[in-house]
Amino acid sequence: MALLREVTSSAVLREVNAGLGSLGDGDAVDVAVAASEGIARLEAVRFRALAQLDRHREGAASVAQEVAFALSVVDGHAAGLVSTAAALTSRLPRTLGLLDRGQVGGYGAMKVATATAWLSDDDARAVDAVLEDRLPDRNSEQIRKAANHAAMMADRDGAARRVERHRAGRRLSIRHGETGVASIEVEDGPVEKVAAAYTRIDREARALRTGGETRTLDQLRADIALDLLLGGQGGKSERSEVFLYMDLNTYLGLNEDPAEVAGHGHIPASLARHIASGPDTVLRRIITDPLSGQVLDLGRDRYRPTAGLGEFVRVRDRECRRPGCHRPAQACDLDHSVPWQHGGHTADTDLVDLCRRDHRLKDEPGWVYRLGPDGTLTITTPTGQSYDSSPPPLHEPRTEEPPPF
Known about the structure:
alpha+beta, 16 helices
């Protein structure tokens, strides 16, 4: 471990970086290649360490969440790292050897693990042997194609089962971007339905490109797809419910502080005001502590009755309280940080929002959740590492009275 720290130490890296300014083009490429090979070797070390952790935990599903905490990666990537680590150290030893030699990177190794996940151990090892000479100097897409082809050739009868498994894994995902945009995707949907859906959307988009329509064809397709998902007929706006958190002074145009959309993150003040001025927008007064920005109380004027305590906790938390999870609180479970049967109370001092997966994680052996008086949730993992999660303030702490209006 000491040698590994020495190789990756800041002092060594500073010394290397100091000499880069004098490199010519060819030498710069050589250094980049050497660095990539070194990164691949370190990734091999990381995969072996994760495989060891997974063995210690006997393959418990919560290992992925612990890795997500420790490496500061999203849950899906953490799960991919753990499953790849298990495959490389058992079924794919030659691919792991390519990592050791710096001939394949970690991302490429994950492609091999995914392509061979449906094979038996014997078939996976056979594919691993076939690929050993085919993977070096290939990019990740070439590796994916080569691994998929080799896997299909190893078990032709199993190809149909693989198709069924993939189609059974269809799911809807959302990916949040920057500047007030996000993407929604139907992953692993039946190809015939996906193709038919795209054809319908494209046909309706082309039909709207008449007269004074200023939207591009891509914009029309996107707008129609969202309208159809929201229950419309395509091409017109539909009402939906999102939760926008915005300071009153921002709403009034007295400052340009960013606002926040639950589950997405911060957006510019101008976009927030545009959303808040929509014809179906409903405003709700929230009282905060001016010094901390934390929620103190909710106003009662709204188009539907308040849900009381549950609504207060959801407004306070905004998202699932496990660090790194951004599922909106409105789609989460209200959970006791201390289980009810163990003395927990149904009060804002003991309730937090957790998505269904993280709600279940809390009950896994070795995971401990504690909620402090200030609302800070401390999660302790089975290895004894602790991570804090505090409800974000609705605004920055203030020391002065807001300007009159």
